[in-house]
């Protein structure tokens, strides 16, 4: 039978944090001068950003012909990666806003990193419609602005939908992220040495926060309203991205299931990415007390649930292709399994359908190395899911004479690798400059200090 102490420990989200005072010191220690490993990773990310800039610059100078895009496959790695990063961005707002509204206590330790991931993922995703345009200097044509010839964007174009979806989501996510940071930046400001650049920076960004009752009252209201505003965005933005495909009559795209299918897939991949970035962060910065197996267990369960929904959507698509009796639809899905891109489809099914089954086992959910490996496989599988949807469908439409093959070029692969470097470049800077774990909210779930003997009286 469990002892009283064990029951108390099991009920707490952070059982190893003894005092509220240690929260500040442990989290702000992350902001101290970096070690060699951080510099190595930052150098690697910077080199990747250089590769990204070189590949894109080369494409701007020499034209979109440097990509592997061709007649039947006009959307390739660029749109695949765009949808992937938009999907990654979604779980940050889910963890932050929706779990906040449901008062889920396990979100406190992970939501700050998830929100940062959201902002940086949207920043990455927003580059791809520009890259895909080829003539990036004409990008402003996508915005509705007054002009002398009364020309307006083509609102039937998915490119315009993406502009509105990405800018709206980026604006709300950034505001939500910065608002939640204010009390913790004030804590960093108070701990910084006087006269340093950090002290000045934190003083500016903390907006005069003093932690008064009045400020907390307004902070709580604003955070609640933004959470309520951000919640429908989680569902709507990726639904809009899914309509980029579902509104077309391409075999394999024209399905009503796409909106919930894409939203579930976005949360699935986003939670997996949160696990991928939190596992090394926990180890390198000694945050084991703040990112416990309980938090990873909860994220693994969320992954399992959304993974089952995604796998159900895969099976539904294959069933409907067979049941519809339409030859192009059947051909499209047969081509996915056994055509030129069979390897991509089977990677997708293995990583997104079979690997998450392991999360049914508690032993796997409580193993940090196993979760880290599974999360990476899920992200690989989710990138290939978008590749399968886009490339296999476009390469094998209605007319056999119009079928073709698409092979990504070196330029596209450079931009793909560079996009991950771009994302981690910003994330590494975030970890060094801003508190990566929410100090104020963790204090809310840590037991309040009591006089000796009082704790036993309370718990009987």
Would you mind describing this structure in some detail?
It is a single chain. The chain is mainly alpha-helical and about 450 residues long. Helix content is about 70%, strand content about 0%. Helix 4 (about 75-100) runs antiparallel to helix 6 and helix 13 runs antiparallel to helix 15 (about 370-395). It starts with a helix and ends with a helix. Mean pLDDT is about 85; it is low at about 1-5.
**Share of residues in strands:** under 5%
Oligomer: single chain
Taking the sheet with the most strands, its summary is: none
Q: Please tally the helical runs, counting DSSP H or I stretches of 4 or more residues.
A: 18
Order of helices and strands: HHHHHHHHHHHHHHHHHH
Helix content: 55-70%
What is the SS-derived class?
Answer: mainly alpha
Average pLDDT number:
85
Q: Compute the gyration radius: what is it?
A: 24 Å
The rounded distance between the terminal residues' Cα atoms is 17 Å
Number of strands: 0
Low-confidence stretches: 1-6
Tell me, what's the shape?
Answer: globular
């Amino acid at each position: 039978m469990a002892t009283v102490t064990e029951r108390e420990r099991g009920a707490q989200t952070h059982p190893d944090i003894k005092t509220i005072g240690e929260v500040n010191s442990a989290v702000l220690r992350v902001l101290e001068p970096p070690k060699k490993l951080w510099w190595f990773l930052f150098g690697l990310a910077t080199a990747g950003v250089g590769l990204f800039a070189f590949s894109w610059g080369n494409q701007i100078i020499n034209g979109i012909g440097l990509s592997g895009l061709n007649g039947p496959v006009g959307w390739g790695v660029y749109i695949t990666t765009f949808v992937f990063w938009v999907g990654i961005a979604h779980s940050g707002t889910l963890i932050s806003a929706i779990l906040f509204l449901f008062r889920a206590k396990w979100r406190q330790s992970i939501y700050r990193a998830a929100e940062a991931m959201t902002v940086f993922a949207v920043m990455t995703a927003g580059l791809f419609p520009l890259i895909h345009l080829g003539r990036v200097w004409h990008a402003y044509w996508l915005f509705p602005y007054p002009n002398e010839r009364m020309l307006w964007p083509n609102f039937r174009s998915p490119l315009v939908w993406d502009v509105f979806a990405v800018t709206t989501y980026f604006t709300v996510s950034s505001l939500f992220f910065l608002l939640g940071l204010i009390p913790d930046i004030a804590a960093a400001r108070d701990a910084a040495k006087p006269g340093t650049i950090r002290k000045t920076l934190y003083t500016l960004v903390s907006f005069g926060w003093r932690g008064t009752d009045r400020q907390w009252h307004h902070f709580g209201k604003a955070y609640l309203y933004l959470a309520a505003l951000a919640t429908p965005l989680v569902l709507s933005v990726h639904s809009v991205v899914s309509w980029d495909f579902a509104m077309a009559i391409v075999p394999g795209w024209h399905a009503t299931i796409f909106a919930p299918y894409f939203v579930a897939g976005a949360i699935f991949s986003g939670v997996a990415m949160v696990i991928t970035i939190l596992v090394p962060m926990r180890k390198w910065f000694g945050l084991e007390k703040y990112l416990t197996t309980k938090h990873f267990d909860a994220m693994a369960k969320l992954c399992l649930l959304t993974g089952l929904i995604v796998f159900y959507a895969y099976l539904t698509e294959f069933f409907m292709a067979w049941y519809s009796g339409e030859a192009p639809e059947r051909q499209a899905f047969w081509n996915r399994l056994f055509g030129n891109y069979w390897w991509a489809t089977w990677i997708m099914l293995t990583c997104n359908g079979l690997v998450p089954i392991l999360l049914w086992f508690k032993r796997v959910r409580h193993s940090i190395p196993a979760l880290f490996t599974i999360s990476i496989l899920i992200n690989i599988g989710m990138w290939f899911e978008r590749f399968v949807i886009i490339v296999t469908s476009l390469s094998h439409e209605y007319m056999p004479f119009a079928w073709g093959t698409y092979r990504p070029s070196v330029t596209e692969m450079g931009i793909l690798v560079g996009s991950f470097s771009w994302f981690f470049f910003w994330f590494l800077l975030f970890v060094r400059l801003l508190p990566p774990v929410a100090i104020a909210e963790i204090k809310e779930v840590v037991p309040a200090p009591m006089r000796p003997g009082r704790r036993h009286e309370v718990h009987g």
